[in-house]
Amino acid sequence: MPSPNVFLRQATLEDSEALLRLLNQCYRDDVGWTNEAHLVGGIRTTVAEIEKVINTPRHYLFVFPQVTEGKETGDILGCIAVDFGQADNREHSSQNNDAYIGMFAVHCDLQGRGVGNQILQAAETFAGRHLKSEDTQGNARLTMSILSQRPELLAYYQRRGYVLTGKSMPFPVDGNNGEPKVEGLQLLELEKRLSAIGY
């Protein structure tokens, strides 16, 4: 089955509930290859967190809306966030030359059909164009984090040119992103240099 054409637009507050359904299904329900149900229980995110992302300057959340007969149905088939603001708050950062990729999800019915590749490529292109104008020393990079016990997900991103930085942090236990089911769960940082995506 061919990959559908992916159209992305910036998320609005009206998308919050649909985004909540998509993200919680993709990460917490035991369906699709991206789910983390065996590692983390509870919610993946909240409406409040989604709305905060939408409203935060330099944090862009893009959605792939379902369209039938030229009109959006209200459902979201995929999403991805690009955050330029994390470098602003990084303790030792003197330049805003990072973009953090997060909230990446594709509806389980479309997984394995190239939709995720299209969405990630679009986010990388968007980030690259913005970072190129801000980066004066050639150090710009894309970063993301994945769970330490997801080797198949790590392999996917490595095929896309991301590499482990060696940095990690414990999975947060504040309850806003679920509760770990295994001991020692870590978030591993990956990066991709701007030069690797043609900028």
TrEMBL record:
Key word Kinase present: no
Residue span, N-acetyltransferase domain: 6-195
Top-level lineage group: Bacteria
GO molecular function, one term: acyltransferase activity, transferring groups other than amino-acyl groups
EC numbers on record: 2.3.1.-
SUPFAM superfamilies: Acyl-CoA N-acyltransferases (Nat) (SSF55729)
Species of origin: Psychrobacter raelei
Gene3D superfamilies (UniProt xref): 3.40.630.30
Protein name per UniProt: GNAT family N-acetyltransferase
Keywords in alphabetical order: Acyltransferase, Transferase
